[in-house]
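Subject: Protein record for review, amino acid sequence with backbone structure tokens
How to read it: Take the token row as a discrete description of the fold.
Enclosed: The protein record, placed directly beneath this head.
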Amino acid sequence: MAESSRLKVGVIGLGSMGFGMAGALLRAGFAVSGCDVNADAVARFGALGGAGAADPVAAAQGADVLIVVVVNAAQTEAVLFGGAAQAMTAGGVIVSCATMAPDAVRGFAAKAQALGLQYIDAPLSGGAARAASGDLTVMGSGPAAAFAKARPVLDCIAAKVYELGDEAGTGAAFKIVNQLLAGVHIAAACEAMTFAAAMGLDLARVYEVITASAGNSWMFENRVPHILEGDYAPRSAVDIFTKDLGIVADIGRGLKFPTPVAATALQMFIMTAAAGMGRDDDASVARMLAGLAGLELPGPKG
């Protein structure tokens, strides 16, 4: 019997990442139940053939594997230990994807173990498009038995699944390193493009040249088209990086380790949020800088 026909999967959080992951699981033949605070997302999931659930407990009912794709540690704790974890099958595996501090992850793993459940610390990288195509990167840590049970699900949602150790929290630490770099690269890309605008350059040509040059980065290549199109609908919001770079700052302070470049990037995201763009796409850092400098960036197409 195929693994997809035996495992029941719950997905809590049908945002840009969770919806794509749930869709990939449906296409692979898994029985998937999903919930979200956004009723439209649940309805769209139902239209794909998924089982829309009214709340996290309903989504987790009888689940062998429960994927939690929410924003932060507070939401993770609320949905899991507000009843969802208790609704899973005995010995089920929680796959927790929110970016959070390692200490928080370790606490949640201990609570799950006390309930007779297994816990994989599984932060993600790759964005909404890769979520939809099942090509994410999972920076995972947790018991080998948990990975073995959840492996068919993980292989469906991710092109690369890294098993980084037995202890929950290690995956979170790897993800925070990634988020330090990602946040800095987004801030740098936005600064570079507004700097180019200040010099009167053709921004489309700047993008063409830089993506073929040593100054390119994954974030430059991915986010600058949002600037060129004047499209700041949130694929990943500014507020995500005020949170994640804030975690970097907190960890650095605790370790007495300086993070000056990340600290500058954090202030750029905070300034953008303070200007009213916290829920907009994180490329809005460019709009914040353009506003300070009195520059015009491209407007929405059409």
Summary: The longest helix spans residues 170-198. Strands lie at 8-12, 31-35, 51-52, 65-68, 93-96, 118-121, 124-125, 136-140, 158-163.
